[in-house]
Fold this sequence. Notes:
138 residues; 7 strands; five-stranded mixed barrel; CATH 2.40.50.140
Amino acid sequence: MSYHTIIVVGRLGRDPEMRYSPSGDAVTSFNIATDRQYTDSSGQRQKDTIWFRVSVWGKQAESCNTYLKKGKMVLVEGRLQADPQSGGPRLYKRQDGSQGASFEITANTVRFLSPRGEGEGDAGDLGAPGPADEDIPF
């Protein structure tokens, strides 16, 4: 038997979207951005942002849809889903023509990390990654 899990902490790039499967199960989807800031060898400050697309099922999906909003901080634990065609992340072209990738996670657990009222509105309020909506790949 093999097993893998991924844990990601980031901020929602936009409000979650909930729908129901044909069997009536709730599923909520949202995206989160994680970023890493560092100083490169030339002394310039750099920032890398990675986007993750998250799917949550059942009662937890309903809670995520009710309580999460753009800019909220969450911890997601789940399994990484590979693109069926490439076996890797889903590739896309950004509006500026550069290549981007999104990683898909099916969540087992979503923990709400932002206090109530924090993070509502602009994702950049608290130092989180804050690209314009058109930069979000999904």
